């Protein structure tokens, strides 16, 4: 079979891997001043300043910045808080709002030109957010129903005939204590990791192809065009993942608050 | 004036958060460089975050 | 042919979530087709189901790289 000419310039291309996610420290040698940590701190500053500026001098007929801030808040409060949690939702709106804006800002930093790194693609950040959600929804359930009754309600679901408990109890315990926080965090991490990796593949691949044979040089613009398309797709996935994380946290809280009669 | 009070309160909470992180993080980082370990920065940042949240609660959360 | 077994595993594991996503959105489309006013009620449910199915696909992709 004829060997194609551009198969030989394949050496020298190192495809992006997990090593591309280990960014070096910025200030000196200290391991705790790497780019993701600085990006997370910067995102906190951006969110705070945006919402402070959009809500000062609040007019009755809002101007554009105030409308933007208010629509984000109204989105979290109404369609995630009120619809899902029900009539005690105002207690949880600060937590849900913080989760939503923190995740969406850090995700969007993955496609902003100079800051191109989504902090959530390092697995520790989603773990911490999932631990917070875990603590909140268990605390809410324990405070509402008492510790023993809450645990009994998890392990032995009411309304089922007794012999099914042998099958159901291990599944329920594993779901509530292991699977929920794990999938919550890993879903966010996997989406951000995969998206960043895809962008790296297209852009680094296109860049490598530009240095190759003339046949590859002609194909490189398609790689870059696909990279642009993937950036838009990535934007949609990032917003969706922030929404899903907050929605699932609200669902878990609503499940813990629900009365069993 | 109520409106000015609210805006001043928001900026001062923001300032407490930032300054707690910067000051205690800075102390932790300086200790790191002086003693050549690498966990003082983390401890300083956590201490700064915790103390600024506590200060916010002290000033604005108790009625 | 080079490569690892990770790729074969990832390819096989991507069948399930692809079918699941198709079924979820097929149900959403037929629900909206029967009753267009139900669109905003069904939309959060559709996206929730899609994200839950997609999570498994992405576990496969990430583990193919990491392991």
From TrEMBL, chain C:
It is found in: Cell membrane; Membrane. The chain crosses the membrane at residues 12-33, 45-66. GO terms for molecular function: lipid binding; proton-transporting ATP synthase activity, rotational mechanism. The keyword Electron transport does not apply. CDD domains: ATP-synt_Fo_c (cd18121). It holds the Pfam family ATP-synt_C. The keyword ATP-binding does not apply. The record marks 54 as: Reversibly protonated during proton transport. Belongs to the ATPase C chain family. F(1)F(0) ATP synthase produces ATP from ADP in the presence of a proton or sodium gradient. F-type ATPases consist of two structural domains, F(1) containing the extramembraneous catalytic core and F(0) containing the membrane proton channel, linked together by a central stalk and a peripheral stalk. During catalysis, ATP synthesis in the catalytic domain of F(1) is coupled via a rotary mechanism of the central stalk subunits to proton translocation. Key component of the F(0) channel; it plays a direct role in translocation across the membrane. A homomeric c-ring of between 10-14 subunits forms the central stalk rotor element with the F(1) delta and epsilon subunits. This is ATP synthase subunit c. It comes from Candidatus Nanopelagicus limnae.
């Amino acid at each position: 079979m004829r060997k194609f000419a551009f198969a030989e310039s394949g050496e020298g291309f190192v495809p992006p891997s997990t090593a591309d996610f280990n960014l070096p420290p910025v200030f000196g040698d200290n391991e705790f001043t790497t780019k993701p940590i600085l990006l997370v701190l910067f995102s906190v500053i951006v969110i705070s300043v945006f919402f402070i500026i959009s809500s000062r001098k609040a007019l009755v007929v809002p101007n554009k910045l105030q409308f933007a801030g208010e629509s984000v808040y109204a989105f979290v409060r109404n369609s995630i808080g009120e619809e899902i949690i029900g009539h005690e939702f105002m207690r949880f709106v600060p937590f849900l709002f913080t989760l939503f804006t923190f995740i969406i800002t850090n995700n969007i930093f993955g496609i902003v030109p100079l800051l191109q790194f989504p902090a959530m693609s390092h697995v520790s950040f989603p773990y911490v957010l999932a631990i917070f959600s875990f603590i909140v929804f268990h605390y809410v359930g324990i405070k509402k129903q008492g510790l023993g009754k809450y645990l009994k309600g998890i392990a032995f679901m009411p309304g089922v005939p007794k012999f099914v408990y042998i099958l159901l109890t291990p599944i329920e315990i594993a779901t509530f204590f292991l699977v929920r926080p794990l999938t919550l965090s890993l879903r966010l991490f996997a989406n951000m990791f995969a998206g960043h990796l895809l962008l790296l593949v297209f852009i680094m691949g296109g860049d490598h192809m530009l240095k190759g044979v003339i046949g590859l040089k002609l194909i490189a613009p398609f790689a870059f065009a696909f990279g642009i398309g993937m950036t838009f797709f990535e934007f949609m996935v990032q917003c969706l993942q922030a929404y899903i994380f907050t929605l699932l946290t609200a669902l878990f809280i609503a499940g813990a608050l629900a009365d069993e009669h | 004036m109520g409106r000015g009070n609210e805006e001043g309160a928001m900026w001062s909470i923001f300032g407490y958060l930032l300054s707690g992180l910067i000051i205690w993080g800075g102390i932790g980082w300086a200790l790191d460089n002086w003693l050549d370990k690498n966990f003082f920065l983390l401890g300083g940042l956590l201490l700064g975050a915790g103390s600024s949240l506590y200060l916010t609660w002290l000033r604005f959360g108790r009625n | 042919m080079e490569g690892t077994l990770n790729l074969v595993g990832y390819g096989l594991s991507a069948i399930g979530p692809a079918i699941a996503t198709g079924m979820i959105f097929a149900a959403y489309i037929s629900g909206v087709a029967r009753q267009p006013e139900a669109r905003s009620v069904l939309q959060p449910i559709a996206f929730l189901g899609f994200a839950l199915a997609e999570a498994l696909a992405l576990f496969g992709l990430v583990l193919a790289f990491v392991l």
